[in-house]
Amino acid sequence: MADLRAGLIGLGMMGRHHARVLGSLPGVELVAVADPGGDVHGVSGGRPVEESIEALIGHGLDYCMVAVPTIYHEQIGLALAEAGVHTMIEKPLAQDTASSQALAEAFETKGLVGAVGHIERYNPALQQARARIEAGDLGEIYQVVTRRQGPFPARIADVGVVKDLGTHDIDLTAWVTQQEFTSVAARTTHRSGREFEDMVSVVGQLSKGAITNHLVNWLSPFKERVTVITGSKGSFVADTLTADLTFHANGEIESSWDAIAKFRGVSEGDVVRFAISKPEPLRTEHEQFRDAVLGKDADIVTMTQGMRTVKVAEACIESSATGTVVTV
Prior knowledge:
Blueprint: E1 4-9, H1 15-22, E2 28-34, E3 49-50, H2 53-57, E4 63-66, H3 73-82, E5 86-90, H4 97-109, E6 114-117, H5 124-134, E7 141-149, H6 161-177, E8 181-189, E9 199-206, E10 211-217, E11 224-231, E12 234-239, E13 244-250, H7 258-264, E14 268-273, H8 281-293, H9 303-322, E15 326-327
Parallel strand pairs: 1-2, 1-4, 2-3, 4-5, 5-6, 7-10
Antiparallel strand pairs: 7-11, 8-9, 8-15, 9-10, 11-12, 12-13, 13-14
Helix pairs in contact: 3-4, 4-9, 5-6, 6-9
């Protein structure tokens, strides 16, 4: 069987990594790339470098990866849908809910595979956490807490921290718990002098009773990517920078030392850091999308799921602007 013919549009910070993976993915031939600004990182590998999506489509693509700024997602995605090209779009799916819905409907109507690049779903630590939760290792899920903090990325100018980084935490929380957001309350700040928010704190309610808290900012001098999932049997701590997953079990041995018992509680149990395989999340993401295009069983982030994530993100922004709890 001939390799799938793939294209890539957007050769910036993320695009260069997509080019590396697509250029070495079994069963896929990266036939051409595109960016109006040219191949600034030198990732084309001698392949044609086009300036527009129309020229890229002209190479007879089976599927395409879109890694352009968010404000262009709808325009480029609709062009690919019209041309009958299966497509994965970097997160967030689009700049707002209406545009996200237009994309989801366009690909569904055409019978095409449409996906969103929410890469955190493919982090080995979260993949392990999701599988172990499904197996009942945490019991009933009580709470999800995420912290996603770091310095300001000068390359992001068309959306704020909620839609750029916060959508990671919205998506992974809904996915790892298999629960949808039903309401959010959020506060944002604008400290860097930009148009969009650069810091957010969110409290959320999920559909099966779990509560969430998300701290996201572009203003910390250190980088942190941590997810803590607490259930009736203990807690998982996933560090997605190192892809480490640690389990803190609720214990069954009470302490006879009263002062320590009061300080630590009476349910502190074993702590285990799992030894897990750590494939590159971006490569796993592309392998799953390739398989979906081939009609195989695959775990992709659908455009409908991506639209729901954008909807929750916009609810966070609305909550901050109005000072109210917003129902999703």
